[in-house]
Amino acid sequence: MEHRHLGRSGLLVSEITYGNWLTHGELVARAAALSCVRAALDAGITTFDTADVYARGAAEELLGQALRGVRRESVEIATKVCLRTGDGPNDQGLSRKHILESCNASLRRLGTDYVDLYQAHRFDDQTPLDETLIAFDDLVRQGKVLYLGVSEWTAAQIREALDLADQLGLRNRIVSNQPQYNMLWRVIEPEIVPLCDGEGIGQIAFQPLSQGVLTGKYQPGQAPPVGSRAASGGRAPMFIRRVLGDELLRRVQELRPVAAEAGLSMAQLAVAWTLRRPGVSTALIGASRPEQVTENAAAAGVRLDDEAMRRIDDTLGDLVETDATKTARMMAVKPDWARSESTAGQPG
Asked: 288 CB contacts (<8 Å, ≥6 apart)?
């Protein structure tokens, strides 16, 4: 496992981050979840990502249990705040009250005194941005948070936060952005990546496998295979079926020779592609079985050549989404924030 700096910060993160959205506490039994974390540690993964809203807090609890006994300084733990976590009027958003209360609750569930990275899960246009930034800065000063990040913010929102932090004289600025990013979904490339590169903000790319679509296990004209996430219970099928389509699945199958020539599985090809992209500090993977973790982690250190990258672009062609406005349209917060984990169907 190789490590990279998170943006221009001094924090090193493993090239592969293990995340537990839609798995721990929801689709994956406790024993399997613990096995997946052990597999991640065995593969050299040191960076773990979760959120207060995942499985209503159960994901954080399970991650904390899985890392119990592991030397705290040897891992990097990231979590998030913003989406609704309860029925109270302030159990949502990026107000000072919700940020401070949610951070304390996350620390209790994770069983740690601090998190390495605390991320604004979405932008909150119902709260003054200075209130949000000062609350985050206070958490760093208190030693409960080491670094700050955001997830699925637009370039304009990130720019506004950076400028305001400078105006307020805050020393603790945003060092990371966690966007959905993969071969098919590249909406961060036109605006967000150039801005972040210039400001030293690293990308924590989630869904590098596009909900498993880029593994090639979904075949055109066929029902999802038994045991796959698209065939499971819960909310997972709702998210996955948004990106399924026969033409897309046919093109994905055409990537098999590219993977084979590189000596990679389809999943490894997708992760390696993500790690090759400019500005990416780490690729965030999830898993329901430990062998999936082991397979995906093997993409660390792989360097796809220019010819492989070109063939991927040529194969996927017009199915690649690069419309920068889709981040804003898909991730916009509703006036009463949806009570599920996502206001857009693609949380990370």
From this structure: 23, 27, 28, 32, 36, 229
